[in-house]
Amino acid sequence: MTTFKVDIKIVLLICLVFVSFLADQTFGHPVAVVKPLQTIFNVLAYGAKPDGKTDSTNAFQAAWEATCKHPEPARLVIPGGVFLVRQVKFEGPCNNKSPIYIQLRGIVKASIDTSTYTEPEWITFEKIVGLNLNGGGTFDGQGPAVWPKHDCMSQAKCASRAINLKFRNITNARIGRITSKDPKGFHMCINGCNNFRAKALEITAPGDSPNTDGIHVSHSNDVTIAKSVISTGDDCISIIQGVNRIKIADVVCGPGHGISVGSLGKYKNEEDVHDVLVKNCTLIGTKNGVRIKTWPDSPPSAATNITFTNIKMENVTNPIIIDQNYCASAKSCRGNKASNVKISQVKFNNIRGTTPTECAVKMHCSPSFPCQNVQVSDINLKYVPVGPTNILARAISECANIRVAVAGFVIPPLCK
Ligand SMILES: *[C@@H]1O[C@H](CO)[C@@H](O)[C@H](O)[C@H]1NC(C)=O
Ligand SMILES: *[C@@H]1O[C@H](CO)[C@@H](O)[C@H](O)[C@H]1NC(C)=O
Ligand SMILES: *[C@@H]1O[C@H](CO)[C@@H](O)[C@H](O)[C@H]1NC(C)=O
Ligand SMILES: *[C@@H]1O[C@H](CO)[C@@H](O)[C@H](O)[C@H]1NC(C)=O
Fold first, then answer.
1. 82: exposed, middle or buried (C-beta count within 10 Å: 0-12, 13-18, 19+)?
2. Which of 70, 187, 216, 257 is an active site residue?
3. Which helix (H) or strand (E) holds 245?
4. Residue 335 pLDDT > 90, yes or no?
5. Residue 305, ligand 3, Cβ within 6 A
6. Top-confidence range, 80-84, 111-115, 331-335, 393-397
7. What is the pLDDT of residues 121-173, one digit of tens each?
8. Of 143, 124, 311, which Cα lies nearest the Cα of 213?
9. Bridge partners for 199 per DSSP
10. Which residue's alpha carbon is nearest to atom 8 within ligand 1?
11. What is the Cα Rg of the chain in Å?
12. pLDDT mean over 81-98
């Protein structure tokens, strides 16, 4: 009998060792070796309820305070389930020396009671150095509850236009495997951030949802947005003032209004935009493809070194467009004074596909500051008119205040 017991213990021990060996093999290297062991802060431990109806705002906030105060490596975990929250602010500075991890596995749903929002932001990340957000979960802004109320569409500070995810003053961010769904306003704003990399995002809202821009970037340096799918009711990505060195790669956009630099020149003292690279992207059924837009009668600023390369257009209404006479709606137009935004060093390379409108390329630059140093190469855009026949017709281009250097095969032929 004694020998039997000992045997069982040994067998169990061997099993345990084997199982943990297997676990290491299956799930990659032991966590402790790859990165310092993280202390886990689970929102459930702070009273959050994954039932989709209990207000978990205070629990989220308390779990964040604990994570952010923790001086050692820390991870905030939002597990599976549906969590209902009002406005939440993940604000630093934090005490951690290493990046903070936020792992979202479940669904976070926004409260639809907009009277509780003090700003047009739902989830805010602010003043953090080192932020890792991932986990495969979803931020659901519950936009359909407010979209029909068009009353405050024109008010910038309107709470019912809350942005799903606002990143303000974040340095060294890694955002991945996150879904943003049906925001009340924009999906994501990146403002005042440095070294911000986002990939494998899924951004989704109906094509007719009002002003649901995908990713809106301003005043930020060294931003990468890659391998993401964006379907929404406004620009998939918009890059406005003060952005330097942004790369957008392997993004699929549609429905939506395309990938835009601008609008620029809306405000006084805007900072310039430099070094924009948009490559290997696909636009499907969008209103615009790749676009640079500036307001007429604008204060002076500049947009320099912008490259669009290797872009596929499927049934895109304005595949290539520079519009220096932009106005968002008839009411907001500023007459016909010239834009003072200087656009220079722009490349459109290897852009192919189809458009349902005759004019596939529009380049309307400012009469005061004609576009400088614009190169166009290897373009093949086919006009496929809407209709039962879908016969190919000849696309055309339109230019004003621009001289274009053309190389390679370019269809439609460009006005020089
Ligand atoms: C950005 O955040 C840091 C702390 O991480 C803070 O010291 C700094 O003042 C913030 N800058 C701005 C412009 O808010
Ligand atoms: C280009 O983008 C597509 C998705 O649109 C992706 O499947 C492909 O791997 C990308 N190619 C390169 C060279 O990155
Ligand atoms: C233009 O931007 C690209 C990134 O798209 C960068 O690699 C290059 O150095 C920039 N060129 C100049 C002249 O600044
Ligand atoms: C192409 O786009 C036009 C206008 O947006 C639309 O009417 C048409 O149905 C689309 N065609 C296809 C094949 O999706």
1. middle
2. 257
3. strand 243-253
4. no
5. yes
6. 80-84
7. 999 999 999 999 999 999 999 999 999 875 555 555 566 799 999 999 999 99
8. 143
9. 176, 226
10. 127
11. 25
12. 96
Catalytic (active site) residue 257: yes
Ligand 4 is surrounded, with C-beta below 6 A, by 285, 315, 317, 356, 386
| Confidence band of 27 (pLDDT split at 50, 70, 90) | very low
271 contacts 301 by C-beta, under 8 angstroms: yes
CA-282 nearest atom, ligand 2: 5
Which residue matches tokens 């676009």? 291
Cβ distance 361 to 414 under 8 Å? yes
Q: List, in order of start, the domains of the chain with CATH numbers.
A: 50-149+161-411 (2.160.20.10)
Count of CB atoms within 10 A of residue 333's CB? 14
Q: Is the peptide bond before 183 cis (omega within 30 degrees of 0)?
A: no
Say how far residue 321 (Cα) sits from the centre of its chain: 21
Asked whether 197 and 174 are in contact (CB, 8 A), the reply is yes
Instruction: Answer whether residue 253 shows pLDDT above 50.
Output: yes
- Nearest atom in ligand 4 to the alpha carbon of residue 317 is 5
Instruction: Kindly report the protein residue whose alpha carbon is nearest to atom 6 of ligand 2.
Output: 250
How far is it, in rounded angstroms, from Cα 200 to Cα 283? Answer: 17
pTM: 0.89
Measured between alpha carbons, how far is 187 from 140 in angstroms, rounded to an integer?
10
| DSSP line for 263-331 | EESSSTTPPPEEEEEEEEEEEES-SEEEEEEE-SSPPPEEEEEEEEEEEEEES-SEEEEEETT--SSGG
Residue closest by Cα to atom 13 of ligand 4: 315
300 is written with which tokens?
């002076």
230, 178, 186, 236: which is closest to 204 by C-alpha?
230
**For residues 183 and 202, what is the distance between their CA atoms, to the nearest angstrom?**
13
Residue 93 structure tokens: 């500075």
Distance of alpha carbon 178 from alpha carbon 370, whole angstroms? 41
Atom of ligand 2 nearest to the CA of 310: 1
Q: What is the pLDDT of residues 202-234, one digit of tens each?
A: 999 999 999 999 999 999 999 999 999 999 999
